[in-house]
Amino acid sequence: MKKRIALVTGGFTGESVVSLKSAAVVERHLDQDKYEVFKIIIEKTKWFHLAPDGQEHPVDLNDFSVSPQGQKITFDGVFNILHGSPGEDGKLAGYFDMLGIPYTTCDAMTSAITMNKGYTKAIIQDIDHLHVAKSIQLFKNSPENHDRVLEELSLPYFVKPNNGGSSIGMSKVKSAEELAEALDKAFAEDSQVLVEEFVSGREFSIGIYSCQGNIIVLPATEIVSSKEFFDFEAKYTAGVTEEITPGRMNEEEIARVNQIAAKVYQKLNCKGAVRMDYFLEHESSKVFFIEINTVPGQTETSLISQQVRAIGKEIKEFYTEIIEEMWT
């Protein structure tokens, strides 16, 4: 008998558009012989099952069930592909935990912590051979904090919302005159903002997931952007960024990065597939942590998809491994 999987997508943020695109790809690649898939769309005003015929069936939030044609359906598990809130920040994980429904992503605590860039860096900064850029976490957009950044950090630096993804609200600041506008932009997206010194290096992103109790590190992708940094446009506009998989690293760098990635995954108690972004500093080749994404994009051209194909694995097989792992 097929297991019933709720494919959860949508969300409360601007990342919902990316989430819906990811869900469409996941839906096409899930093993239909093993799983009966129900697309569940979560919006601020309603949660519903979108049937193949376009009909919307409301979700009963008491037990996360749907009743198309009056027949009640519950789920054996959840494939969470909801970027941003509430799918990536722990809210949805806590809800499923209370209902006893397994899901493919990190638990509530890990999801909440990793959504906060400052807290994540504080936890992983003592991992061997991993470095973090000097930074300040701000909780208020005030003249005092503006001056504090100028006094304590060296230009240039990145200003970014502390909770969030897809580089929305992020700026690169090259001069003191640009700081106020960058802070306004970031605080418009979040009540916490992270300001960190710029690291001169090549940018990479690497997928990590667990399978049968083992941590699997995928080949890293090198990000070569025609823009100043890997922002929303660079991530989601064709032709703006060159993505090289596997990325250009020597054997020693690959071994060091893979060891670091596995330790980050383990220390943060991650589940399912995550993606770690990092810099390889020019000249020193030191690994500088950028952030970790616990619900990475799953479009046809997404980094995780590229990396899975690079090891000769079918996307369908990869999704099956992710799903089966949530019941172990």
TrEMBL record:
One MF term in the entry's GO annotations: ATP binding
Active site: 15, 166, 302
Subcellular location field: Cytoplasm
GO cellular component: cytoplasm
Name assigned to this protein: D-alanine--D-alanine ligase
Binding positions (Mg(2+) 1): 277, 291
Pathway assigned in UniProt: Cell wall biogenesis; peptidoglycan biosynthesis
Gene name of the encoded protein: ddl
Listed EC numbers: 6.3.2.4
Cofactor binding comment, as recorded: Binds 2 magnesium or manganese ions per subunit.
Domain of life: Bacteria
Positions contributing to Mg(2+) 2 binding: 291, 293
Catalytic activity entry: 2 D-alanine + ATP = D-alanyl-D-alanine + ADP + phosphate + H(+)
Cofactor(s) it depends on: Mn(2+); Mg(2+)
Keyword field: ATP-binding, Cell shape, Cell wall biogenesis/degradation, Cytoplasm, Ligase, Magnesium, Manganese, Metal-binding, Nucleotide-binding, Peptidoglycan synthesis
GO term, biological process aspect, one: peptidoglycan biosynthetic process
